[in-house]
Amino acid sequence: MARETTSITQALLKSYEEIGGINHLDEGNLPSKCAIAALCSDLMQIMFPGFFEIEAVGRGGIAALTQQRIGDVMTRLGREIRPSLAALRDRPEDASVEAHRLVCNFLQSLPEVRAALKTDVQAAYDGDPAAGSYDEVILAYPGLEAISVQRMAHVLYQSGVPIIPRMMTEWAHARTGIDIHPGAEIGSHFFIDHGTGVVIGETARIGHHVKLYQGVGLVARSLAAGQQLKGHRRHPGLEDFVTIYANATVVGDITIGRGSTVGANVFITEDVPPDSLVALGEQKNEIRKKRRAAPVA
């Protein structure tokens, strides 16, 4: 066994020397996936106090609990942001000072993020007759979880924090099946119903009172140009009061006009005027009587 492990180790060490680009050695640490996952979970407790705790939270203890949580997140998130700043071309002279500034800006934005999330909860409740209560939406709807994490990650993304915003939204993606890039701009009263398979790209713009169903893709036309597309609009824009039904794909830097409805399974590559209905052509389902199998002797 020792001979086998030595042989395997030597082969891997040789690989580390010969195959570059997927090693991170002698370059300092990176943000921790486990730490970011724990931070996302703790941030959800801050955003929705009383919903994700094992024991009930009362008004009498919420001030001390919140202050404790904010201090804890401030320390831990700063610890993760510091190594992420090494990915910047123009690195700050003092990574600790810059990380603290970014964390403070992020935490100060949370009341505004909560205000947006309240509209998302309301949109889900108002838009889904199966929703029993606001509590059910917060505790059981994957769309709200994905939107919550994306709205927080978007603040860090806008502040120029590398890597971590994407790690946050990928944590939510793994849990919910909903992939929203932290760069996407999303208005109020956003509702993703069911949600599995929804993909929203980095430069997507979503207005107010928009509703998406499962499998919807707001994607780029082509990524063949690779990094040359960085910084350019390449994803769709949805104006206010747009509804897109299941498995529809909207492609490229186009606009779906205000008040429009996109039916299921369509593929759109051109602008859609306001107050339009986009649907597949007429389809006919054929229903026939089943043939009875011959009895087995």
Secondary structure blueprint with pairings:
Elements: H1 2-18, H2 33-47, H3 59-84, H4 95-108, H5 110-127, H6 134-140, H7 142-158, H8 164-176, E1 179-180, E2 185-186, E3 191-192, E4 199-200, E5 205-206, E6 211-212, E7 217-219, E8 237-238, E9 243-244, E10 249-251, E11 255-256, E12 261-262, E13 267-268, E14 277-278
Parallel strand pairs: 1-4, 2-5, 3-6, 4-7, 5-8, 6-9, 7-10, 8-11, 9-12, 10-13, 12-14
Helix pairs in contact: 2-3, 2-8, 3-4, 5-7, 7-8
Structural notes for this entry:
- The chain has 297 residues and is α/β, with parallel strands linked by helices.
- It has two domains: 28-177, serine acetyltransferase, domain 1 (Orthogonal Bundle), CATH 1.10.3130; 197-281, Hexapeptide repeat proteins (UDP N-Acetylglucosamine Acyltransferase, domain 1), CATH 2.160.10.
- The protein contains eight helices and 14 strands.
- It has helices at 2-18, 33-47, 59-84, 95-108, 110-127, 134-140, 142-158, 164-176, and strands at 179-180, 185-186, 191-192, 199-200, 205-206, 211-212, 217-219, 237-238, 243-244, 249-251, 255-256, 261-262, 267-268, 277-278.
- The strands form three sheets. It has a five-stranded parallel sheet.
- Helix 5 packs antiparallel against helix 7.
- The radius of gyration is 24 Å and the shape is globular.
- The mean pLDDT is 93.
